[in-house]
Amino acid sequence: MPTTASAASAFADVTASDSALRRFLHGLPGVDAVGLEARAASLGTRSIKTTAKAYAIDLAISMIDLTTLEGADTPGKVRALAAKAVNPDPTDRTTPTTAAVCVYPDMVATAKAAVAGSGVKVASVATAFPAGRAALPVKLADTADAIAAGADEIDMVIDRGAFLAGHYLKVYEQIAAIKAECGDRARLKVIFETGELSTYDNIRRASWLGMMAGADFIKTSTGKVAVNATPANTLLMLEAVRDFRAQTGVQIGVKPAGGIRNTKEAIKFLVLVNETVGEDWLDNHWFRFGASSLLNDLLMQRQKLATGRYSGPDYVTVD
């Protein structure tokens, strides 16, 4: 099966120089913004039946990277979040676990111990998150520390300043270096911070740049800016991974993050996945939600489907 490494080698000529990479990225088809937003809005109006909704809720729960990325994070808070990831609803053991817990590098060891034996992954932001403004040796050290502490996945941020200045090869080489640091030890998610990229054309270019450099996932946002995941920017990234697989045979995951807070919104994103890239991506190995508050609403909606009534405010924990 083709790998991200084989895909990267397939683009060796394109990535040989800044000018060649620029020609390729600026040669990608322009994005019809009106058409993109109209299609995303149209797919968002799809309704699903009760049995399909129950399936979608459980699928969404299983796709969550349950996240805490605050300066005030403590080992106790991380252990509590990890316990919730492993056992989201203590009253119903049929509730799926979340995909992962996402924390800062210094909290990886705490999270790893808390989820041991559960199958829940530990993801760590790295590379001078959330700005991504640091020298490459610092970014590599940040990544190495997280992996040494037990991280299964690394969520890196690109240098948006370099990207917006047109220094595409610099961004490519940094992603490739972080991917090499991850090796086979951790999957790499590359965060674009789509809200800062200004145009849909830039989001398409960043998507291809990340995939060519070896990303295992492409991710919309850090959750730290005003505009995070939207149906339109996620649809654009889904189209990119679809086209990339058609060209290379390599499948890349997608992670919308930030601003997805309730079940209705999550299901809209799952419809986008199903209608754009199909069932191959309807699995937490290939699609994730970066979220903190989404899980609570999914649990309350799940309980309503089971009992016919909404739960009280004390049914879920406040993260």
UniProtKB/TrEMBL annotation:
Alphabetized InterPro entries for the sequence: Aldolase_TIM, DeoC, DeoC/FbaB/LacD_aldolase
Molecular function GO labels: deoxyribose-phosphate aldolase activity
EC class (word): lyase
Keyword Isomerase in annotation: no
GO BP of this protein: carbohydrate catabolic process; deoxyribonucleotide catabolic process
Annotated GO CC locations: cytoplasm
Claim: Lyase is one of the keywords in the record: yes
Pathway recorded for this protein: Carbohydrate degradation; 2-deoxy-D-ribose 1-phosphate degradation; D-glyceraldehyde 3-phosphate and acetaldehyde from 2-deoxy-alpha-D-ribose 1-phosphate: step 2/2
Catalyses which reaction(s): 2-deoxy-D-ribose 5-phosphate = D-glyceraldehyde 3-phosphate + acetaldehyde
Pfam families in UniProt: DeoC
Keywords, in A-Z order: Lyase, Schiff base
EC annotation from Swiss-Prot or TrEMBL: 4.1.2.4
Family matches, as CDD domains: DeoC
Family membership noted in the UniProt record: Belongs to the DeoC/FbaB aldolase family. DeoC type 2 subfamily.
PANTHER family: DEOXYRIBOSE-PHOSPHATE ALDOLASE
Protein name: Deoxyribose-phosphate aldolase
Organism, as annotated: Streptomyces gardneri
